[in-house]
Amino acid sequence: MNENHLQPLRGAFKVAQCARENGNHPFGAVLVDPKGEILLRAENTVVTSRDITAHAEVNLIRQATAKYDREFLKNCTIYTSTEPCPMCAGAIFWSNIRRVVFGLSEESLYEFAGKDSDEVHILPCREVFAKGKKVIEVVGPLLEDEAREVHLGFWE
Questions:
Q1: 43 has a pLDDT exceeding 70
Q2: Which of 43, 57, 83, 106 is the catalytic position?
Q3: What burial letters (b/e) apply to 26-59, b meaning 16+ CB within 10 Å?
Q4: In sequence order, which residues have a C-beta less than 8 Å from that of residue 131 and are 6 or more positions away?
Q5: Rounded Cα distance, 125 and 138, in Å
Q6: Span 56-78, average pLDDT
Q7: What's residue 115's pLDDT?
Q8: DSSP E strand stretches across the chain
Q9: From CA 156, how far away is CA 151, in angstroms rounded?
């Protein structure tokens, strides 16, 4: 495991905890520049904003594309507490960010969060990215036990 991924990934976990504390689903994302500096943070705000598209990654992409051009974003990395869903993977693709690092896998999340729900859309982000013509590197799952902690007790 690349040690450079640990701090920003744990930063995404902290943002996910903030989302939970703010009454939202526990997901977080951070954007890191090529030098490893955290540029932006965003949490899930689906509940409090009453916007079903307000996932952490989409919120981050909205901030990032307003602030940075596509050429700059090409060299950035998005760190997400949980594997991006298909909608978020699409937003990442269109933003031109070329690396995704995530903690908890979609499969692991749905083992406890979606067992009895029809709100499950199983499509790994790697498969979404594979359908595009640009290469987007995906690293993960990493630190899954730590990533899972913010979800404990939330989905019951």
A1: yes
A2: 57
A3: bbbbbbbeeeeeebbbbbbbbeeeeeeebbbbbb
A4: none
A5: 8
A6: 98
A7: 65
A8: 28-32, 38-43, 77-82, 99-104, 137-139
A9: 10
Q: Is 127 a catalytic residue?
A: no
Amino acid letter at 37? E
In this structure, what DSSP letter does residue 143 have? S
Q: If residue 17 lies in a helix (H) or strand (E), which one and from where to where?
A: helix 6-21
Task: Write out the two tokens for 49.
Answer: 């904003």
Q: Residues 18, 45: contact at Cβ < 8 Å? A: no
How far apart CA 110 and CA 4 sit, in angstroms, is 28
The C-alpha atoms of residue 61 and residue 105 are separated, in whole angstroms, by 20
Please state the pTM of the whole predicted model. 0.95
DSSP state of 132: S
Q: Using an 8 Å Cβ cutoff, are 117 and 99 in contact? A: no
Residue 110's contacts (CB-CB under 8 Å, 6 or more residues apart) are 120, 122
How many other CB atoms are there within 10 angstroms of residue 138's CB atom? 18
